[in-house]
Each structure stands twice: as structure tokens, then as C-alpha cells.
Write a structure and sequence with these properties.
Layout: H1 2-40, H2 43-66, H3 70-74, E1 83-87, E2 94-98, E3 122-124, E4 130-131, E5 136-137, E6 142-145, H4 153-163, H5 170-180, E7 184-188, E8 194-201, E9 204-211
Length: 219
């Protein structure tokens, strides 16, 4: 009888250990699955995904720009959102929305599109700044700023309203917000700089702003 009792006790211990190991393994697998989920929701991982697609639109847009290819470059402009041009006709910045780019009719008309050939690699950093006093950039290259929120058009609209009494209707203000919300700034520091913004609509990327006023220190 005593032998049977010890045999029963031994089997019970083995079963208990087996259950404990199984639960430990399940908990471990659950933690691993949780870690995978956290990694996928990591903002830096999302930025890495954006880099792949942003590099494509940036490279393609600059290529079409240098080749002066109207048809190709306009395929990178959203058919409904259009593209906002920023320029500086005087002391203040101005902007206007157009539906397409025409290399024979630059916006503004007095500022032809200059070649932007370069040999830079894309750098994902805060966009460079231009100092009009020294007439120099604080760094040279082709930069995509994935971290700085775009806020260009609304301040310009506010200045136009305050100093030039330019009133924008509600629909136009919505178009302004659409152009710059969640967009990324691209700066190419060629002798005549090329500065634009890219944004995702659905599963495609488009250029929503062409900034031809920044680094213009003539006014």
C-alpha cells in the first residue's frame, strides 16, 4: 500500500511540473507576442516605413523637375488637392493654389524654374536653415524632415489678413490645412534651392507645397 502511495505521489508531482512548464511557456510566448505588437506600433518603425515611400516620391519629383517634364511632374500632384505655391513678390510671403505645373509658365511669372542637379544622398534630418546675412545654409545637402510639423500657410494667411486685408473664405482655409497637415518638408540646397512638401493620400504620395519664397532675401 505504501509503495502505491509513493507511486501516486510521484506521478502527481510529474504532472504538476509538466503543467507549470506549459504555463511558463505559454506566458513566455504571450510576452513575445506582446513585444512584437509593441514593436509594430513603435513610431520609429512607422518613420522607417515612411522613409521608403518618401524617398521614391522625392527622387521622382526632382528628376521630373530637372527634366522639365510637365506630364510626369503633374502625376505627382493630387488631382483635387492641387499644389500650393509660396513666393515673395515683396516684403511678405504670398501663396496661391494651382492645379498643375507648367515649366513654360512659372509661378510667379518672373521666377523661372532653375535646374536642381545634385549628387547628394537623402538625409532624414531637421530641415536646414538659410541665413540671409551670411547668404549660407547651416548645412548642405538633400534633406527630408520627418519630425517638424508644417506650419507655413496659416501664418502667411494671417499676415495677409492683418496687413493687406486679404480675407480667405472657409473653403480656401480648408485647402490650406489639407496641403500642409501631416506633410514633410524637403530641402535641396542647390544654388537655386528646391523646396517642397510631400504628403500621403491613401496609398500614394504627392507634392502639396512648392516653397519658392524661402531663402529669397531680395525683398
Amino acid at each position: 500500500m505504501r509503495n502505491k502511495f509513493f507511486l501516486f505521489l510521484l506521478i502527481s508531482c510529474c504532472l504538476g511540473a509538466s503543467c507549470t512548464n506549459t504555463k511558463t511557456q505559454e506566458n513566455s510566448e504571450s510576452i513575445q507576442d506582446s513585444n512584437v505588437f509593441v514593436d509594430q506600433s513603435n513610431p520609429s518603425a512607422n518613420l522607417n516605413d515612411d522613409r521608403r515611400f518618401v524617398s521614391d516620391i522625392v527622387t521622382a519629383f526632382i528628376k521630373a523637375y530637372n527634366e522639365r517634364d510637365n506630364e510626369k511632374i503633374n502625376s505627382y500632384i493630387h488631382p483635387e488637392a492641387g499644389i500650393m505655391f509660396i513666393h515673395r513678390p515683396g516684403a511678405m510671403d504670398w501663396f496661391e493654389k494651382v492645379s498643375k505645373i507648367d515649366f513654360e509658365r512659372p509661378v510667379p511669372s518672373y521666377y523661372p524654374y532653375a535646374n536642381a542637379d545634385h549628387t547628394y544622398q537623402i538625409e532624414y534630418e531637421v530641415a536646414p536653415k538659410y541665413d540671409c546675412a551670411s547668404e549660407k545654409w547651416n548645412k548642405m545637402g538633400l534633406f527630408v524632415d520627418l519630425t517638424t510639423a508644417t506650419n507655413l500657410l496659416n501664418p502667411i494667411a494671417a499676415n495677409l489678413n492683418e496687413f493687406d486685408d486679404v480675407q480667405l473664405d472657409t473653403d480656401y482655409r480648408k485647402q490650406i490645412q489639407l496641403a500642409e497637415k501631416d506633410s514633410y518638408r524637403v530641402v535641396l540646397t542647390t544654388p537655386t534651392p528646391l523646396i517642397f512638401h510631400v504628403k500621403q493620400f491613401g496609398d500614394r504620395w504627392y507634392v502639396t507645397i512648392l516653397d519658392r519664397g524661402y531663402a529669397d532675401c531680395g525683398a
